[in-house]
Design goal:
This protein has helices at residues 29-44, 57-71, 116-119, 128-156, 241-246, 263-266, 304-312, and strands at 2-7, 9-11, 47-51, 89-91, 96-97, 107-111, 175-182, 193-197, 203-208, 215-218, 224-229, 235-239, 256-259, 270-277, 284-285, 302-303, 316-317. With 318 residues, it is α+β, with helices and mostly antiparallel strands. The chain has one domain (2-317): B-lactam Antibiotic, Isopenicillin N Synthase, Chain (Jelly Rolls, Sandwich). An eight-stranded mixed beta sheet has the order 2-3-12-9-14-7-6-4. It has a five-stranded mixed beta sheet with strand order 1-11-10-13-8, with no helix packed on it. Strands 5-17 form a two-stranded antiparallel ribbon. Strand 10 and strand 11 form a beta hairpin. This is 2(OG)-Fe(II) oxygenase family oxidoreductase. InterPro entries: DIOX_N (IPR026992), IPNS-like_FE2OG_OXY (IPR044861), Iron_ascorbate_oxido_reductase (IPR050231). Residues 7-121 form the Non-haem dioxygenase N-terminal domain. Residues 208-227 are annotated as: Disordered.
Length: 318
């Protein structure tokens, strides 16, 4: 049985203005409303659609054009292969699976890390259009978005406003953009799995090339939960496993997969850009006492780098 639920669409503009919690003041009505919507969604499934987070439509178009250029290069074999030990590089088509009981994911991907010039040996081999947009502007915009969204999450959970942002000083665990090309399915096969995951870290920001391109499906439990977002330029944010752990599962990290919803879309290549936000490597992830309930805590403290390494090594390379 497949049940359906809506992903709320949230305007993050109140967190990009010098008002309320952004300047250390009492939250504005608009900030409180946005935080309440985030809290409600994250208690249920962990998915929200956001807009007005500092990424303009024109910049988004440039970003997707650069991603398309990247996957059009002929000499992809020169790119360093992705590996969990460094979490950077190129993943060829059908080279990964996050579920051993399913066929390989119908996608190829390219991961880069902060700061791109020193930790990404493959970057110099990518098209100049990709290097130029990734090397500074994209990361700068997403860093700001991560900090502002972390404030919204802290407000939603009634925590100190810097509870999450204080762990994002170096951004040395973050990856993005994961240029993700979902390849066309031969014969327009509907229902083919483009990829499956439970986001590993604090949160995962996915900017789809079209809001109607894909549906996310829940793989947990006995039923699949189809989630759909309001059509608008923006991004999908989903709670990562680390944030669920941080809140003692008060917020949910839903395992999900991307499927091809219809034959027309199945016949086309599709692109997404993902930005994985994780606390700095040396930060400890420890459940706040307010989430311990009757004093029982589901999780032991763990260093951010150790948790991320554990989750990355769960991936099956084919």
């Amino acid at each position: 049985m497949v049940s359906s639920c809506d992903i709320p669409s949230i305007n993050l503009q109140p967190f990009f203005e010098d008002k309320g919690v952004v300047i250390g003041d009492t939250p504005t009505t608009e900030q409180m409303e946005a935080a309440a919507t985030i809290h409600q969604a994250c208690q249920k499934h962990g998915f929200v659609h956001v807009n007005n987070f500092g990424l303009s439509e024109s910049f988004g178009e440039r970003l997707f054009a650069a991603s398309k250029d990247l996957f059009s290069v002929a000499d992809k074999h020169d790119l360093v292969p992705w590996h969990p030990s460094h979490n950077t590089g190129y993943s060829p088509y059908k080279s990964e699976s996050l579920n051993v009981n399913r066929p390989a994911d119908l996608k190829e991907a390219f991961n880069v890390r902060f700061p791109p010039t020193s930790t990404n040996p493959s970057l110099s081999k990518t098209p100049m259009s990709f290097q130029e947009i990734v090397d500074d502007e994209f990361f700068r915009k997403l860093q700001t978005a991560a900090i502002r969204y972390s404030m919204a999450c802290a407000l939603a959970l009634d925590l100190p406003i810097d509870f999450f942002s204080k762990t994002l000083k170096k951004f040395d665990q973050c990856t993005g953009p994961m240029g993700l090309q979902v390849k066309s399915v031969e014969g327009g096969e509907v229902g083919g799995s483009a990829g499956g995951e439970e986001a590993d870290g604090w949160k995962d920001v996915v900017v789809p090339s079209s809001p109607d391109d894909t549906n996310n499906h829940n793989k947990t439990g006995d039923e699949n939960e189809t989630t759909t977002a309001t059509t608008s330029f923006g991004a999908i944010i989903n709670t990562g496993a680390m944030l669920a752990r941080w809140t003692n599962d008060h917020w949910k990290a839903t395992a999900h997969r991307v499927v091809v919803p219809n034959a027309e879309i199945a016949s086309q290549d599709r692109y997404s850009i993902a930005f994985f936000v994780d606390p700095d490597a040396d930060e400890f992830i420890e459940v706040d006492p307010k989430f311990a309930g009757d004093g029982k805590c589901c999780y032991e403290p763990i260093r951010s780098r150790d948790f991320l390494s554990m989750k990355l090594n769960e991936m099956t390379l084919i």
